[in-house]
Give the backbone structure.
Amino acid sequence: MVAAGAPEDACTAEPFVPGRGGLAALRRAAADCRGCPLHRDATQTVFGAGNTDARVMLVGEQPGDQEDRQGKPFAGPAGKLLDRALADAGIDPGEAYVTNAVKHFKFTQAEPRKRRIHKAPNLREMTACGPWLAAELAVVEPELIVVLGATAGKALLGSSFRVTQVRGTVLEEEIHGRPERLVPTVHPSAVLRSDDREAAYRGLVSDLEVAARALS
Ligand code: URA
Ligand code: SF4
């Protein structure tokens, strides 16, 4: 039996995060993170992608099936929609740093070789993975954070975050000890699931236009 409080129970990425170095050092270290149990079943750590000097950081929930296989955030259908929405809002997707609140894919699977079904990360996992996001923010120092959906919102702004109340507005908050500007919006996967996709897509683009104006 493992005693409570043993390192495997700690549930934080903190001891894995290097104290110095840039994005490349962070990405290398994150590949070996054992900060919470999610690394066990996932294929690989999906670290953020983009440049150190990106002006905007987009924060999603966690990698999905495609991202887990490819090792890149927003590589699947949600990412395709996101890129289109960014371009429609006047934000160059190539100039954004893209990452997730949680860096390993969480899923359920009825049987081996059956489809892996995405499962939302819980507060414990979001908190465990927080040091990676804090480290990305400290290195990239974006002018603006775009918060994609409820999980990213809760991870950054706390459990009382409600996307419907604050979407499309510019928030100023202290995040991991630094003053940040944030624009929350819905998650692109929510647009894909929506009964009225056109309207949901327009809503996403209009929130991203608020972000584009805040950057100009
Ligand atoms: N959904 C997310 O939140 N992040 C990804 O990287 C892909 C899908
Ligand atoms: Fe580490 Fe985050 Fe993966 Fe958990 S989800 S093992 S904290 S990188």
User: Anything to note?
Assistant: Strands lie at 56-60, 96-100, 107-108, 117-118, 144-148, 171-175, 178-185. Residues 1-6 have pLDDT under 50 and may be disordered. The chain has one domain: 14-215. The domain at 14-215 is CATH 3.40.470.10 (Uracil-DNA Glycosylase, subunit E).
